[in-house]
Amino acid sequence: MFNLFRENVKIAIDAIKSQLLRTILTILIIAIGIMALVGILSGVAALENTIASDFSSIGSNTFSLQRYDFSPQRQSSRERTRVNPPISYTDVKAFKDSYNYPFTTVSLSFTGTASAEVKYQNEKTDPEVIVLGANQHFIENSGLNIENGRGLNVFDVQNSNAVCVIGSDLKKALFTNENPLNKVISVRGAKFKIVGVLEEKGATFGNNQDLRVIVPIQKARSLFTSPNINYALSVKVSNKDLLEGAQEQAVLTFRNVRGLSPLEDNDFGLMRSDDLINRIANISNVLYAAAWIISLVTIFGSTIALMNIMLVSVTERTREIGVRKALGAKRKTIASQFFMETVIIGQFGAALGIVLGVAIGAAVALGFNLDFSTPWFAMFSASLIAFIVAVISGLYPATKAAKLDPIESLRHE
User: Fold this and answer.
1) Using CA atoms, how far apart are residues 68 and 85, in angstroms rounded to an integer?
2) In angstroms, how far is the first alpha carbon of the chain from the final one?
3) Rounded average pLDDT per 10-residue block, the chain, 413 residues
4) How remote is the C-alpha of 292 from its chain's centroid?
5) What is the pTM of this model?
6) Which burial class, exposed, middle or buried, applies to 297 when counting CB atoms under 10 A from its CB (0-12, 13-18, 19+)?
């Protein structure tokens, strides 16, 4: 039995070699479908991994009050788009002073600029550093960690101390061979002493999270005085059982801060960190579905192409089939020979498609600074699909070859 199987494999490989150009083209057609499946699934998985890792550190027990909801409702053309007022410093300060829900910490922050130039002695950065004004709870509520030194404390915020915490990339840019702690940097002519360095977070969609400076909020307000600055407000709840109550109290408190009547809708939005992750997961599911549809359509074309080449092969080798049958080959032997050819071509196409798909996924992840991981599920699915394609494509040609009449086959020219 094994010898017969080995012989069929050898015959199949010889037949494939005899029609090398046609076989290569068929393998490429199959590889394109598999490449589309593996490549798209790899890219989507890398995107999902990156976003999930970025937001999972914040924790599911954190929520924020912001100017708009994360996904605004669609409005008809007759309705005016509601424009919510910016969240001002007066709003966030009033909220912090009046919000006293137990087991919560309130973080206040705003982006002063995203294009600052930071100087240290004779070294300076490109004007692409983000400067944030924040209170003492911002680093904890944002899921950031201190690698060296300390974060901002209540005394820094209350006294508007000229201190700062910097990102890891800023440390690399200005302090290659020395400890940045207690060194003084200059931002817009203002001097700040470095008291802490953040752990590396990486970049997402070109937004470098490690190239930033965090300073006490009042000190930042004295440097950045643009009108209509929108402040960020986040609340972290230590006890997850109290999260729902903390949100309800936060909405009620902020409505009072805004002076809204009971009949008025909220002119702000509330977003939980895990809500964002869930919405991203839903988007990823849509992308996964689109990837499968695109890939299956392409693979369907591969199935037709593979079946066609095997039917042509049966027609061209009719006389060979007749000779083998005349020498005693059974129908099952003939069928298994052609079936084996189809499976081998399918697996060659799968192997090439997987290699190309993984390469494309890795290139996309590298180009967009995403967290790439080996797409084992996509690779397994591609191999299985390629085998199914081979089975479907080879079944009819193999059956047709097995049913050929040996006498008529020998007469075939």
Assistant:
1) 9
2) 33
3) 68 77 84 84 80 64 87 50 88 95 95 94 89 95 92 95 95 90 94 95 67 95 90 92 93 95 92 73 80 79 80 78 77 79 87 91 82 82 83 82 72 57
4) 17
5) 0.67
6) exposed
